[in-house]
Design brief:
Layout: E1 10-14, H1 21-34, E2 39-43, H2 49-59, H3 71-95, E3 99-103, H4 106-116, H5 121-132, E4 139-144, H6 147-158, H7 170-186, E5 191-195, H8 200-217
Parallel strand pairs: 1-3, 1-4, 2-3, 4-5
Helix pairs in contact: 1-8, 2-3, 3-4, 3-5, 4-5, 4-7
Length: 220
């Protein structure tokens, strides 16, 4: 296999609402492109027409019932969106040698539906194994920001409005953050925990340090 045909790298950004994932994903993409790499920035739920349709269902549930989807239905919808995303966008890009940067991946389901939602890790991983063949990122970057700062960022970003998941209680989002920390500690080789506070360029510098081994391993 020639260098031009090498499999791309898969990087996921994780963290709570307002942690800065989208900003850091775009900064990382720009830096990688400056190095001459092909990069695809995508998101979950979403990334393909089918997955984007499911995203709309998840974040703005149909009907007048404020409770939205049941926890099991929510987990199934996320898994379905991810399966379509993986098959039609992520895997083809990786096989073509493109670096894929994803704003959220399966660890969000593990933290939100599995952890805070109480469905458990086994159920979420089972759905992921069936729908996406258990695909894991080469590295998951967890942006950690304390609850007080997250609340302020969300207010600035959303102006008091929130989608069906972002608008859940502070206790729910605290459970999400705790679960992310547990997942990162249990898989230290697959995760890099990064302080999400500070100016975006400073956080980006820490992101670049975290992915340096991937860049080194991809050199001829």
């Amino acid at each position: 296999m020639t260098n031009a045909q090498q499999r791309g790298r898969f990087i996921a950004f994780e963290g709570g609402e307002g942690a800065g994932k989208t900003t850091q994903a775009n900064l990382l993409a720009a830096s990688l492109r400056d190095r001459g790499l092909s990069v695809d920035v995508t998101r979950e739920p979403g990334g393909t027409p089918g997955a984007e349709a499911i995203r709309n269902l998840l974040l703005d549930p149909p009907g007048e019932d404020a409770r939205g989807w049941s926890l099991k239905a929510e987990a199934l919808l996320f898994a379905a969106a991810r399966a379509d995303h993986v098959e039609h966008r992520i895997l083809p890009a990786l096989k073509a040698g493109t670096w894929v940067i994803c704003d959220r991946f399966v660890d969000s389901s593990r933290a939100y539906q599995g952890g805070a939602g109480g469905l458990g890790d086994e159920a979420i991983l089972g759905l992921h194994e069936f729908g996406s063949d258990g695909l894991r990122p080469d590295l998951t970057l967890l942006l950690e920001v304390d609850a007080d700062h997250l609340g302020q960022r969300l207010l600035e970003r959303d102006g008091g409005a929130a989608d069906a998941i972002g608008g859940r209680s502070a206790a729910y989002h605290q459970k999400v953050a705790s679960r992310f920390s547990v997942l990162a500690q249990a898989n230290s080789s697959g995760f890099a925990a990064i302080n999400g506070l500070g100016e975006p360029d400073a956080v980006h510098a820490n992101v670049m340090s975290a992915i340096a081994p991937l860049l080194e391993s991809g050199r001829p």
